[in-house]
Amino acid sequence: MEEPPCSTIISHVMMPHDANPAGNIHGGAVMKQIDNAAGVVAIRHARTNVVTASIDRLDFHHPVFIGNLLILKAGLNWVGNSSMEIGVRAETEDLMSGEVRHVVSAYLTFVALDAQGRPAKAAQYTPITAEQKRRHQEALRRRKMRLAERNKEKNCQVSSEKCG
Question: Which of 12, 75, 132, 159 would be 127's cystine partner, CB 3.0–4.6 Å?
Fold first, then answer.
């Protein structure tokens, strides 16, 4: 089944080189795969080089083990001028039992770049389905919160009296 250009599904069998001695896959290895999946979506949409600008919090619900199939489902949620939000849901499948578990979800902001490495205009995005529209509205709320947090941090750096 072919995915629309603003989404992708990528799978990886997790191997020992990504694990600790107990057989648990390092969170950073999962984060890297999340970033890769989101990057595919961002490049597909912008059709130019992109960089990761931010990753919202990651809360791991279940461990990932050696031999698990890590399944990453990534989709475009929102596009601004040069930035875009991509949501990624990571699941594992135990290949022996078939059990699938939701491991972690994340929202990543990417910025489209021009040939000189400066922010470039990203193609507009119009959600069509009810699910796309819901995800777009949620992305707008997250963007508003991220901008408020960024402004709060800037003000705090200027004056400690503005922290709080």
Answer: 132
